[in-house]
Amino acid sequence: KNQVEQSPQSLIILEGKNCTLQCNYTVSPFSNLRWYKQDTGRGPVSLTIMTFSENTKSNGRYTATLDADTKQSSLHITASQLSDSASYICVVIDTGRRALTFGSGTRLQVQP
Amino acid sequence: EPEVTQTPSHQVTQMGQEVILRCVPISNHLYFYWYRQILGQKVEFLVSFYNNEISEKSEIFDDQFSVERPDGSNFTLKIRSTKLEDSAMYFCASSEARRQSTDTQYFGPGTRLTVL
Between chains, do A43 and B109 touch, taking CB under 8 Å as contact? Predict the structure, then answer.
């Protein structure tokens, strides 16, 4: 059964600072890993999609990394803004399926 | 920019009643999905729909649930006899049906279902 564990559960940082969120996953066979941003009361929004062969992918101030050997991923946010306050969710998919398996997310709060 | 829309935004119903949640996927998308998120918990997959049939469903998607694409634009989720534990935010999503590894699922804003 696919499993996704994220840390930390919550994080508070000051505006302008960087942060890194962690994800450990168990999925077999692995197809791809995604990071989503979810504002409170809203639907998730895709940030990045990474396949087995990709180590790093950037989307503006968001940079995701993937280590398929250790089954770990991270999401690095640079120069945080107040609008980055949200939950960041690691999501995995196994080969042959389209159902997304979501982690519990890291709730990020950016303070002025 | 095209987006997935859902109606209603909030639905309150009595236990045992039937509810229909509606979604309008992005117009050129071919795969449609329903997910749910119980308050404070993870988002969970319910069902995917392609070419007018269910392509995949989870253990949660039992006989109480059904999906339909009644016309060229709407995609619906029906819960026949609601239970208290069906209270959740229900998200509709759609994707273009590209290769599975790169097909982005776009989520709607959700319908909050409250069962009393």
Answer: yes
Burial of A44 (0-12, 13-18, 19+ CB in 10 A): buried
Q: Convert the pLDDT of each residue in B56-82 to its tens digit.
A: 999 999 999 999 998 878 999 999 999
Predicted pLDDT of residue B38: 95
Taking the CA of residue A98 and the nearest CA in chain B, the distance in Å comes to: 7
Q: What is the pLDDT of residues A21-48, one digit of tens each?
A: 999 999 888 889 999 999 988 999 999 9
Helix H or strand E segment including B34: strand B31-37
Chain pair A-B, CB pairs under 8 angstroms: 61
Residue type at B19 in one-letter notation:
V
Burial of A28 (0-12, 13-18, 19+ CB in 10 A): exposed
Partner residue opposite B58 with nearest CB, options A31, A99, A102: A99
